[in-house]
């Protein structure tokens, strides 16, 4: 086994949206960095994940000069928000201060693919199939990141900063000693049956509220979409054969479900998670490694971009100007924004789910949620 010693300014663990954006922002400002990704390039460029960026996320990319990463996105130039169907009737959202009209429907694999292309084109160092990643010396001034490549050789990289952007189950956060981080979790009490289909979504996203539960269909590309059905957390995929899924979609949307192959199914309990603080020594967490937000908010990628932008700005100030103030405040700055978005996500998630099926939290909260929902909609014509 060959062992190699290297050195750089920042090692970024994880090549998803957060890690790729951070690497691109740093590279464009002259900060050397290495991105380590445990999967192959083909895997990360094709895994199906979230498909939306809010206006904040789009704006961050443009502010850092990476607006081309959203060129393949579906933008709604009409300014109309996604359709909402309530008990089979189409309703219109109020348009006052609707900032997210400037957002974009962009499958995560497309954004990742674009960011990889940009990072490599700019001369970035992106290493796929980096296995057995471990972090040492995080509490010192010069941490070390060790990994094994596909050929079995081990490399140790000394660096000034480590960015943990390897997701909720990654190794970065687990490298923090016990007792340092506090995990705040909220369980919503219901799940989504998520179904990947080879059916295009037109429009790119549509939501439905029904007495049988929430439903949605979101684009995942020109010939694919993911559908969501609210269900009990105790359900399994065996409880949902294909015909039941199509029947339930037709009921909740009030029209026949489009025919097309169902590729995969998964039951995902809805929850919110925040880890505090978002740093330990020279390790800084970002994206899903630091927090999970309800998918109802469609803000996971935008939160990741916010973290990446703030961390890049802080590292640049430290390296270029010798000013560590932004780095010292990185966790507080990001957590303030994260909790703000979590609050909005909890409110919207409860509103959209409680206003339909009352078997989860009762008739009282159903009426409360329906009143909250009506406040977001244009009045029905009399």
Architecture overview:
It is built from ten helices and 20 strands. With 382 residues, the chain is of the alpha/beta class. The strands form four sheets. The protein has an eight-stranded mixed beta sheet. A six-stranded mixed beta sheet has the order 8-3-2-12-19-18. Strands 1-11-10-9 form a four-stranded mixed beta sheet, with no helix packed on it. Strand 2 (10-13), helix 1 (17-27) and strand 3 (33-36) form a beta-alpha-beta unit. The longest helix has 25 residues, at 330-354. The chain is elongated.
Task: Give the neighbour order of strands across the main sheet.
Answer: 6-5-14-15-16-13-17-20
Task: Describe the largest sheet.
Answer: 8 strands, mixed
Reading the helices and strands in chain order gives EEHEHEHEEEHEEEEEHEEEEHEEEEHHHH
Name the beta content range: 25-35%
**Number of discrete helical segments:** 10
Topology:
Blueprint: E1 3-7, E2 10-13, H1 17-27, E3 33-36, H2 41-46, E4 52-53, H3 55-63, E5 84-86, E6 89-91, E7 104-105, H4 108-121, E8 125-127, E9 131-136, E10 144-148, E11 154-158, E12 161-164, H5 171-174, E13 182-197, E14 205-209, E15 215-219, E16 225-231, H6 242-253, E17 262-276, E18 279-280, E19 283-285, E20 291-292, H7 300-321, H8 325-328, H9 330-354, H10 362-374
Parallel strand pairs: 1-11, 2-3, 2-12, 3-8, 5-14, 12-19
Antiparallel strand pairs: 4-7, 5-6, 9-10, 10-11, 13-16, 13-17, 14-15, 15-16, 17-20, 18-19
């Amino acid at each position: 086994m060959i062992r190699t010693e290297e050195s750089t300014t920042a090692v970024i663990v994880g090549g998803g949206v957060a890690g790729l954006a951070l690497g691109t922002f740093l590279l464009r400002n002259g900060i050397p960095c290495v991105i380590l990704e445990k999967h192959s390039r083909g895997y990360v460029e094709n895994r199906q994940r979230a498909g939306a960026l809010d206006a904040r996320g789009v704006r961050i990319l443009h502010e850092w000069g990476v607006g081309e990463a959203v060129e393949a996105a579906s933008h709604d130039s009409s300014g109309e928000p996604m359709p909402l169907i309530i008990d089979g009737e189409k309703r219109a959202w109020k348009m006052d201060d609707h900032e997210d009209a400037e957002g974009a429907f962009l499958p995560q694999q497309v954004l990742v693919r674009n960011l990889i292309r940009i990072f490599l084109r700019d001369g970035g160092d992106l290493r796929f199939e980096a296995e057995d990643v471990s972090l040492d010396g995080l509490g010192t001034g010069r941490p070390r990141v060790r990994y094994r490549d596909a050929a079995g050789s081990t490399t140790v990289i000394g660096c000034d900063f480590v960015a943990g952007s390897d997701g909720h189950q990654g190794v970065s956060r687990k490298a923090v000693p016990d007792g340092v981080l506090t995990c705040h979790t909220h369980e919503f009490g219901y799940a989504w049956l998520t179904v990947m289909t080879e059916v295009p979504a037109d429009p790119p996203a549509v939501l439905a509220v029904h007495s049988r539960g929430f439903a949605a269909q979101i684009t995942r590309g020109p010939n694919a979409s993911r559908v969501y059905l609210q269900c009990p957390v105790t359900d399994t995929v065996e409880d949902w054969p294909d015909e039941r899924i199509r029947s339930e979609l037709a009921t909740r949307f009030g029209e026949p479900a489009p025919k097309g192959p169902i590729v995969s199914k998964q039951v995902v309990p809805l929850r919110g998670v925040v880890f505090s603080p978002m740093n330990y020594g020279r390790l800084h967490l970002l994206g899903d490694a630091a927090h999970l937000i309800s998918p109802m908010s469609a803000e996971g990628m935008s939160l990741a971009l916010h973290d990446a932008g703030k961390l890049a700005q802080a590292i640049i100030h430290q390296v270029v100007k010798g000013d560590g103030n932004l780095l010292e405040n990185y966790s507080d700055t990001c957590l303030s924004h994260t909790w703000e978005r979590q609050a909005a996500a909890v409110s919207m998630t409860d509103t959209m789910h409680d206003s339909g099926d009352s078997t989860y939290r009762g008739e009282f909260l159903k009426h409360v949620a329906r009143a909250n929902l009506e406040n977001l909609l244009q009045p029905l014509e009399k």
